[in-house]
Amino acid sequence: MTIKFSGVIPILVTPFNEDESVDTHSIKTMIHLMKDIGVNGVTILGVLGEANRLTDNERELIITTAIQAADQLPVIVGTSTTGTRSVIHYNTTAKRLGASAVMVTPQAEPNPSDEKVFQHFHTILSESDLPVILQDHPASTGVHMPNELIFRMLDELTGFGGVKLEAVPTTPKLQSIKSRYQEKISVMTGLGALYAAFDLEGGSDGFNTGFAFPEVLIALVGAAKQKDWASVHKIYQRFLPLIVYEQHPGVAIRKELLKMRGAIRTAKVRAPGIQGTKSITTTLKMLLHRTLPKQNVTTPIKLDSGH
User: Fold this and answer.
1) pLDDT of 270-293, one tens digit each?
2) Cα separation of 14 and 264, whole Å?
3) Domains in the chain, ordered, with CATH?
Protein backbone atom coordinates (compact mmCIF):
# COMPACT_ATOMS: atom_id res chain seq x y z
CA MET A 1 0.00 0.00 0.00
CA THR A 2 1.56 3.29 -1.13
CA ILE A 3 1.45 6.01 1.48
CA LYS A 4 1.42 9.77 1.07
CA PHE A 5 2.80 11.27 4.26
CA SER A 6 0.35 14.13 4.61
CA GLY A 7 -3.14 14.95 5.86
CA VAL A 8 -4.01 13.26 9.16
CA ILE A 9 -2.38 9.96 10.13
CA PRO A 10 -3.22 9.15 13.76
CA ILE A 11 -0.74 7.35 15.95
CA LEU A 12 -2.71 4.62 17.68
CA VAL A 13 -2.40 3.30 21.22
CA THR A 14 -1.80 -0.38 21.88
CA PRO A 15 -4.95 -1.64 23.64
CA PHE A 16 -4.65 -4.19 26.42
CA ASN A 17 -7.14 -6.31 28.31
CA GLU A 18 -7.27 -5.95 32.09
CA ASP A 19 -4.77 -8.81 32.40
CA GLU A 20 -2.38 -6.84 30.12
CA SER A 21 -2.74 -9.23 27.19
CA VAL A 22 -3.05 -7.60 23.76
CA ASP A 23 -6.67 -6.74 22.94
CA THR A 24 -6.94 -7.55 19.23
CA HIS A 25 -10.69 -6.86 19.25
CA SER A 26 -10.03 -3.26 20.27
CA ILE A 27 -7.32 -2.86 17.62
CA LYS A 28 -9.96 -3.66 15.01
CA THR A 29 -12.61 -1.43 16.61
CA MET A 30 -10.18 1.49 16.87
CA ILE A 31 -9.08 1.22 13.25
CA HIS A 32 -12.66 0.91 12.03
CA LEU A 33 -13.44 4.21 13.82
CA MET A 34 -10.41 5.82 12.19
CA LYS A 35 -11.62 4.66 8.79
CA ASP A 36 -15.11 6.04 9.44
CA ILE A 37 -13.55 9.36 10.43
CA GLY A 38 -11.69 9.51 7.12
CA VAL A 39 -8.02 9.57 8.12
CA ASN A 40 -5.22 9.19 5.57
CA GLY A 41 -3.52 6.27 7.30
CA VAL A 42 -2.59 5.05 10.78
CA THR A 43 0.64 4.54 12.69
CA ILE A 44 1.08 1.74 15.19
CA LEU A 45 3.82 1.04 17.75
CA GLY A 46 4.78 4.70 17.95
CA VAL A 47 6.34 6.50 20.90
CA LEU A 48 3.14 6.19 22.97
CA GLY A 49 2.23 2.77 21.57
CA GLU A 50 4.05 1.06 24.48
CA ALA A 51 6.18 -0.82 21.96
CA ASN A 52 9.05 -1.09 24.44
CA ARG A 53 6.76 -3.21 26.65
CA LEU A 54 5.93 -5.77 23.97
CA THR A 55 7.45 -9.10 23.03
CA ASP A 56 8.37 -9.74 19.39
CA ASN A 57 5.45 -12.15 19.07
CA GLU A 58 3.07 -9.49 20.37
CA ARG A 59 4.46 -6.96 17.90
CA GLU A 60 3.73 -9.34 15.03
CA LEU A 61 0.22 -10.00 16.35
CA ILE A 62 -0.49 -6.26 16.58
CA ILE A 63 0.90 -5.52 13.11
CA THR A 64 -1.01 -8.39 11.51
CA THR A 65 -4.27 -7.46 13.22
CA ALA A 66 -3.93 -3.78 12.34
CA ILE A 67 -3.10 -4.37 8.68
CA GLN A 68 -6.01 -6.77 8.25
CA ALA A 69 -8.41 -4.29 9.87
CA ALA A 70 -7.00 -1.36 7.89
CA ASP A 71 -7.51 -3.11 4.52
CA GLN A 72 -6.88 -0.32 1.99
CA LEU A 73 -5.78 2.19 4.65
CA PRO A 74 -1.98 2.57 4.80
CA VAL A 75 -0.27 1.45 8.01
CA ILE A 76 3.03 2.87 9.29
CA VAL A 77 4.87 0.75 11.86
CA GLY A 78 7.19 2.21 14.46
CA THR A 79 10.41 0.19 14.46
CA SER A 80 12.69 2.29 16.66
CA THR A 81 15.03 0.48 19.02
CA THR A 82 18.54 0.98 20.33
CA GLY A 83 20.41 -1.17 17.82
CA THR A 84 20.78 -0.61 14.09
CA ARG A 85 20.50 -4.33 13.31
CA SER A 86 17.38 -4.58 15.48
CA VAL A 87 15.70 -1.77 13.55
CA ILE A 88 16.49 -3.53 10.29
CA HIS A 89 15.03 -6.75 11.70
CA TYR A 90 11.82 -4.96 12.69
CA ASN A 91 11.66 -3.26 9.29
CA THR A 92 11.94 -6.63 7.56
CA THR A 93 9.12 -7.98 9.72
CA ALA A 94 6.93 -4.95 8.98
CA LYS A 95 7.54 -5.42 5.25
CA ARG A 96 6.72 -9.13 5.42
CA LEU A 97 3.46 -8.46 7.23
CA GLY A 98 2.30 -5.82 4.75
CA ALA A 99 3.15 -2.43 6.26
CA SER A 100 3.25 0.65 4.03
CA ALA A 101 6.17 2.39 5.77
CA VAL A 102 8.19 2.39 8.98
CA MET A 103 8.98 5.19 11.40
CA VAL A 104 12.42 5.40 13.01
CA THR A 105 14.00 7.71 15.58
CA PRO A 106 17.71 8.24 16.22
CA GLN A 107 19.11 6.68 19.38
CA ALA A 108 21.01 8.37 22.19
CA GLU A 109 24.59 7.34 22.88
CA PRO A 110 26.85 8.16 25.85
CA ASN A 111 28.95 10.30 23.52
CA PRO A 112 26.54 12.23 21.24
CA SER A 113 27.60 12.17 17.62
CA ASP A 114 25.85 13.44 14.50
CA GLU A 115 28.01 11.06 12.48
CA LYS A 116 26.69 8.07 14.45
CA VAL A 117 23.13 9.18 13.76
CA PHE A 118 23.94 9.55 10.07
CA GLN A 119 25.52 6.10 9.87
CA HIS A 120 22.60 4.58 11.81
CA PHE A 121 20.16 5.78 9.15
CA HIS A 122 22.56 5.10 6.28
CA THR A 123 22.70 1.42 7.21
CA ILE A 124 18.97 1.18 7.89
CA LEU A 125 18.02 2.76 4.58
CA SER A 126 20.50 0.64 2.65
CA GLU A 127 18.87 -2.56 3.96
CA SER A 128 15.19 -1.58 4.16
CA ASP A 129 12.67 -1.93 1.35
CA LEU A 130 9.95 0.22 2.93
CA PRO A 131 9.89 4.04 3.02
CA VAL A 132 11.38 5.28 6.28
CA ILE A 133 9.77 8.17 8.16
CA LEU A 134 12.48 10.09 10.02
CA GLN A 135 11.10 10.98 13.45
CA ASP A 136 12.69 13.93 15.24
CA HIS A 137 11.41 13.70 18.82
CA PRO A 138 14.09 14.76 21.31
CA ALA A 139 11.71 14.48 24.28
CA SER A 140 11.65 10.69 23.98
CA THR A 141 15.02 10.00 22.35
CA GLY A 142 17.31 12.50 24.02
CA VAL A 143 18.78 13.19 20.57
CA HIS A 144 18.76 16.71 19.14
CA MET A 145 19.27 16.62 15.37
CA PRO A 146 20.44 20.00 14.03
CA ASN A 147 19.10 21.19 10.69
CA GLU A 148 22.43 20.49 9.03
CA LEU A 149 22.28 16.80 10.00
CA ILE A 150 18.72 16.42 8.73
CA PHE A 151 19.65 18.22 5.50
CA ARG A 152 22.66 15.93 5.02
CA MET A 153 20.56 12.81 5.50
CA LEU A 154 17.82 14.00 3.16
CA ASP A 155 20.40 15.07 0.55
CA GLU A 156 22.65 12.02 0.66
CA LEU A 157 20.41 9.11 1.64
CA THR A 158 17.65 7.51 -0.42
CA GLY A 159 14.51 6.00 1.02
CA PHE A 160 12.99 8.59 3.33
CA GLY A 161 9.21 8.82 2.99
CA GLY A 162 8.90 11.96 5.06
CA VAL A 163 9.91 13.72 8.27
CA LYS A 164 7.93 13.61 11.52
CA LEU A 165 8.99 16.83 13.24
CA GLU A 166 8.50 17.13 17.00
CA ALA A 167 11.50 19.18 18.07
CA VAL A 168 10.29 22.31 19.85
CA PRO A 169 9.99 25.05 18.88
CA THR A 170 8.69 23.30 15.78
CA THR A 171 8.02 26.28 13.51
CA PRO A 172 11.62 27.46 12.80
CA LYS A 173 12.84 23.95 11.97
CA LEU A 174 9.71 23.22 9.95
CA GLN A 175 10.13 26.38 7.91
CA SER A 176 13.80 25.60 7.28
CA ILE A 177 13.04 22.12 5.93
CA LYS A 178 10.08 23.25 3.80
CA SER A 179 12.03 26.23 2.45
CA ARG A 180 14.88 23.96 1.35
CA TYR A 181 12.86 21.06 -0.08
CA GLN A 182 9.45 22.58 -0.89
CA GLU A 183 7.19 19.68 -1.94
CA LYS A 184 10.07 17.24 -2.41
CA ILE A 185 9.75 16.04 1.18
CA SER A 186 6.63 15.82 3.31
CA VAL A 187 6.89 17.10 6.87
CA MET A 188 4.18 16.26 9.38
CA THR A 189 4.01 17.42 12.98
CA GLY A 190 2.74 15.79 16.15
CA LEU A 191 3.09 16.42 19.88
CA GLY A 192 -0.61 15.72 20.31
CA ALA A 193 -1.43 18.75 18.10
CA LEU A 194 -0.33 21.00 20.96
CA TYR A 195 1.06 23.55 18.48
CA ALA A 196 -1.35 22.71 15.66
CA ALA A 197 -2.23 26.20 14.41
CA PHE A 198 1.38 27.35 14.48
CA ASP A 199 2.58 24.19 12.74
CA LEU A 200 0.10 24.67 9.92
CA GLU A 201 1.08 28.32 9.51
CA GLY A 202 4.70 27.17 9.38
CA GLY A 203 3.97 24.85 6.46
CA SER A 204 3.22 21.47 8.08
CA ASP A 205 1.75 18.91 5.66
CA GLY A 206 -0.55 17.66 8.41
CA PHE A 207 -0.58 15.73 11.65
CA ASN A 208 0.91 12.38 12.58
CA THR A 209 -0.12 12.29 16.20
CA GLY A 210 -2.33 10.53 18.70
CA PHE A 211 -4.96 13.14 19.58
CA ALA A 212 -8.16 11.17 20.21
CA PHE A 213 -10.28 13.32 17.88
CA PRO A 214 -8.69 13.17 14.40
CA GLU A 215 -11.84 14.86 13.02
CA VAL A 216 -10.60 18.10 14.58
CA LEU A 217 -7.21 17.75 12.90
CA ILE A 218 -8.86 17.01 9.56
CA ALA A 219 -10.89 20.22 9.92
CA LEU A 220 -7.73 22.17 10.78
CA VAL A 221 -5.84 20.82 7.76
CA GLY A 222 -8.81 21.55 5.49
CA ALA A 223 -9.08 25.14 6.70
CA ALA A 224 -5.31 25.64 6.32
CA LYS A 225 -5.41 24.44 2.72
CA GLN A 226 -8.01 27.14 2.06
CA LYS A 227 -5.78 29.70 3.82
CA ASP A 228 -8.66 30.27 6.20
CA TRP A 229 -6.50 31.09 9.19
CA ALA A 230 -9.37 32.59 11.14
CA SER A 231 -11.13 29.20 11.10
CA VAL A 232 -7.89 27.41 11.93
CA HIS A 233 -7.47 29.46 15.08
CA LYS A 234 -11.14 29.24 16.00
CA ILE A 235 -11.11 25.43 15.84
CA TYR A 236 -7.75 25.29 17.60
CA GLN A 237 -8.86 27.53 20.45
CA ARG A 238 -12.07 25.55 20.94
CA PHE A 239 -10.29 22.23 21.36
CA LEU A 240 -7.07 23.45 22.99
CA PRO A 241 -8.14 22.63 26.59
CA LEU A 242 -8.79 19.03 25.55
CA ILE A 243 -5.54 18.89 23.56
CA VAL A 244 -3.53 20.26 26.50
CA TYR A 245 -5.11 17.89 29.02
CA GLU A 246 -4.51 14.88 26.80
CA GLN A 247 -0.85 15.86 26.52
CA HIS A 248 -0.07 15.06 30.14
CA PRO A 249 2.89 12.63 30.32
CA GLY A 250 2.07 9.01 29.60
CA VAL A 251 -0.73 7.45 27.62
CA ALA A 252 -3.42 6.88 30.27
CA ILE A 253 -5.48 9.98 29.43
CA ARG A 254 -5.47 9.26 25.70
CA LYS A 255 -6.54 5.69 26.36
CA GLU A 256 -9.36 6.88 28.61
CA LEU A 257 -10.61 9.20 25.87
CA LEU A 258 -10.50 6.40 23.32
CA LYS A 259 -12.40 4.20 25.76
CA MET A 260 -15.06 6.93 26.05
CA ARG A 261 -15.23 6.95 22.25
CA GLY A 262 -15.88 3.20 22.23
CA ALA A 263 -12.66 2.61 20.30
CA ILE A 264 -11.07 0.42 22.96
CA ARG A 265 -12.59 -1.66 25.75
CA THR A 266 -10.21 -0.72 28.58
CA ALA A 267 -7.79 2.10 29.31
CA LYS A 268 -5.27 -0.35 30.75
CA VAL A 269 -1.62 0.77 30.55
CA ARG A 270 0.95 -2.00 30.69
CA ALA A 271 3.14 -2.03 33.83
CA PRO A 272 5.02 -0.10 34.99
CA GLY A 273 3.09 2.62 33.20
CA ILE A 274 0.86 4.98 35.18
CA GLN A 275 -2.85 4.12 35.08
CA GLY A 276 -5.70 6.59 34.84
CA THR A 277 -7.72 7.70 37.88
CA LYS A 278 -11.32 8.57 38.68
CA SER A 279 -10.27 12.22 38.86
CA ILE A 280 -8.96 12.07 35.28
CA THR A 281 -12.18 10.46 34.07
CA THR A 282 -14.25 13.16 35.78
CA THR A 283 -12.16 15.92 34.22
CA LEU A 284 -12.42 14.37 30.76
CA LYS A 285 -16.20 14.10 31.02
CA MET A 286 -16.34 17.77 31.97
CA LEU A 287 -14.09 18.77 29.08
CA LEU A 288 -16.15 16.74 26.60
CA HIS A 289 -19.37 18.28 27.93
CA ARG A 290 -17.97 21.78 27.43
CA THR A 291 -16.31 21.12 24.09
CA LEU A 292 -18.75 18.73 22.41
CA PRO A 293 -22.13 19.22 24.10
CA LYS A 294 -24.85 16.76 23.09
CA GLN A 295 -22.56 14.91 20.67
CA ASN A 296 -22.18 11.14 20.55
CA VAL A 297 -18.41 10.78 20.62
CA THR A 298 -18.55 7.06 19.80
CA THR A 299 -19.16 8.04 16.17
CA PRO A 300 -17.31 10.60 14.01
CA ILE A 301 -18.03 14.01 15.50
CA LYS A 302 -19.54 16.83 13.47
CA LEU A 303 -18.09 20.31 13.57
CA ASP A 304 -20.86 22.82 12.93
CA SER A 305 -20.48 25.69 10.46
CA GLY A 306 -19.35 27.95 13.28
CA HIS A 307 -16.87 25.27 14.43
Assistant:
1) 999 999 999 999 999 999 999 999
2) 9
3) 7-214 (3.20.20.70)
